[in-house]
Amino acid sequence: MRIKEGFLLREVAGSYIVVATGALTKEFNGIIKLNETGSFLWKKLAENTDTQALAFALTAEYDVSEEDARKDVESFVSLLADAGILEK
Amino acid sequence: MFTIQIADLVVELNNRFSYVEELCREYKVEGKQPLFSVSATEEEIDEELRISGLSLPRAYAEATCLHRHIARRLSEYGAFLLHSAVISCDGKGYAFAARSGVGKSTHIGLWLKCFGNRARVVNGDKPIMRKDGERFLVYGTPWNGKERLGDNICCEMKALCFLERGETNYIERIGAEEALVRLFSQVYLPEDAVASAETLDLLGEFIGKTQFYLLHCNMEDEAALVAYRGMNKEDEE
Q1: Which residue among A12, B2, B14, B190 is least crowded, i.e. fewest CB within 10 A of its CB?
Q2: Closest by CA position to B126, among listed B74, B174, B164
Q3: In angstroms, what separates the C-alpha of A4 from chain B's closest C-alpha?
Q4: CATH number for B203
Q5: Given an 8 Å threshold on Cβ–Cβ distance, is A11 in contact with B207?
Q6: Among B6, B22, B64, B56, residue whose Cα is nearest residue B40
Q7: ipTM exceeding 0.85, yes/no
C-alpha cells in the first residue's frame, strides 16, 4: 500500500499539513493536520510499504515498544484507508 | 485585451466580455510590460456556470475565471489571496475573516462609522497579501465583493481577526496553531503542486509575522472599538 499520487505534505508554522493537488483536489478539499509521528509514517507511505515495515521503522526511530508501534500503525493506516487516501 | 496592475504586478487580461474591463477600471495601466497574461476558454466559463449553480451572466463567470487564473500565479511573486474584508486604520491593515454571513462587511462598516476619515476600506472580499521583505502588505483588488467595497490601495498588515457572532463583544489573541486551521479555510490554494507548496511556505511566514485574534461580536458600534483596542493593546503596554 501507498499514499495516492497528488498529496503534498508540508511543515507550516510548526504544524504538519497535508493538502491535495492537481486532479485530487476534486476529491479532497480541506487540510489534514498530522502530528510528528503521523508525518513520519506519511513520508514512509509515499513509497509502497506494509504495516510490518512501518511498525519496524517506528520502533527504529522512536522510543516505542513493538506492540505499541504496531497498534499505532494499524490505527493510522485504517484512518487513511477509510478516508480513501491509500492505494493498494 | 487590457492590462492591470494588481498587488504591484502587471497582468494582461484577454477578455471576451467588457464586464471584466469595467470591473478592473481603477487598476488599468498602459505602456507597461505584463509579467503574464490570463484568459478563460468557453469551456471554463461553462464549467464555472455549472459549478456555481446560479444563472449568472457569462460575462460575470468570465471575470471569476480570470480572477482564478491570476490567483494561481500569485505564489510566484510571494503573494496569496485571502478571503477577508480589510480595513486600513491610521495606515495599518486589519483583516477580518469569517464564514460567509457572519458579518465581515457589517463589521468594517462599523469601523468606518467609529473612526471616520482615519479608516478606509482596502477590500471587502478578496484582497491580496504580498510579502515585502520582513513584512506583509495587503492590496486592494477589483474583486471586492457584492457590496463593491474597496479601492486600489495598499498598506502594511497589522493583524488578522477571525469573527464569530456573540451576544457581547470580546476579543482574544490566538496562537499559530489555531490561526493556521482557521486561516486555511479562507486562503486560495492553487491546484498546481509547486504553486501549492509555495503558498504553504508563504502562509508559514505570514503566520510568523502576523498577530491573530478571535473577536466575538455583535452588530453594535462597540464591536469596532473592542476590536481596535484589543489589537492595539500590546503597543500601549
Answers
A1: B14
A2: B74
A3: 14
A4: 3.90.228.20
A5: no
A6: B64
A7: yes
Residue B57: exposed, middle, or buried by beta-carbon count in 10 A (0-12, 13-18, 19+)?
exposed
Secondary structure (DSSP) of B48-66: HHHHH-S---HHHHHHHHH
**Boundary-marking domain end, from B59, B77, B95:** B77
H-run or E-run covering B236: helix B222-236
Does one domain contain both B20 and B63? yes
Closest among B139, B226, B214 to B182, alpha carbons compared? B214
B235 CB neighbour count, 10 Å cutoff: 7
Please indicate, yes or no, whether residues B113 and B20 belong to a single structural domain of this protein: no
Please give the grid coordinates belonging to residue B185. Answer: 479555510
Return all residues near B237 (Cβ < 8 A) that are at least 6 apart: none
CATH number, domain A2-87, options 1.10.3470, 3.30.980, 1.10.1660, 1.10.10: 1.10.10
Written as tens digits, the pLDDT of chain B (237 aa) is: 999 999 999 999 999 999 999 999 999 999 999 999 999 999 999 999 998 887 889 999 999 999 999 999 999 999 999 999 999 999 999 999 998 888 999 999 999 999 999 999 999 999 999 999 999 999 999 998 888 889 999 999 999 999 999 999 999 999 999 999 999 999 999 999 999 999 999 999 999 999 999 999 999 999 999 999 999 987 665
Residue B193 touches partner A, C-beta closer than 8 Å: yes
Spatial separation of the C-alpha atoms in residues B166 and A25, rounded to whole Å: 34
B201 at A interface, C-beta within 8 A: yes
